[in-house]
Give the backbone structure.
Amino acid sequence: MTVRAKKFLGQHFLKDETIANKIADSLSLEGYQHILEIGPGMGMLTKYLLKKDKTIWVVEIDRESIAYLKTHYLHLSERIIEKDFLKMDLSIYFKDQPLAIIGNFPYNISSQIVFKAIENREKIPEFSGMFQKEVAQRICGKPGNKTYGILSVLTQAFYDAEYLFTVDPSVFNPPPKVDSGVLKLTRKKNYTLPVDTAFFFRVVKTAFNQRRKTLRNSLKSFDISDKLKEDVIFALRPEQLSVQQFIELTKSLAEDGTRDQ
């Protein structure tokens, strides 16, 4: 019995044992008991996770994959969650217990998976997985690099991001048309911001919506006082700012009494 890859679910099944083992080994396994794998498919990564001294859960939306897992991983059947991860309430299954997220993520929802992890950052100290290479590079991008953007800043405000290795299309069935990249996110010791988080998100997103312009122009929708506009930071483009500078910018805007109009 095999599972047919479904294009509408963005399925590309990993068939390389070595890479699956490397992804499983990317987790430090420190500070939590539960690991949640997203989109296990036929369990290529799952079987290596099950070797860890942790409680393994999987969340899968594809009925054919669920049937396969229940047949081939009998001892896992009670921890197969038949849901869409993006609509899943983690507290129902894990209460206040921390967990790690891992997976060979469907490319069509991979960024949304990261944003959901960020929203649940108090529960998720660690996150590893495979993305389209371009998306993985954006998440791990550094200031001044063309890959640096909204996803980079919002992720790295709460997590240390590390690009681990690149994966060739040939190790998937069916092979995707692009390279893949595996990354690891480790939650920062201090992952609370000294500013309003929702306002921080708006500032970052507004700035990068016109990334080629200076902040003085890209943040025009905010009612910024003339005095604050004199700050040298407004002469920079968003891609030149570090995460810490974005936090300081948000704090300055809040103290200035500014909000987007």
About this structure: The chain has two domains: 7-187, 197-255.
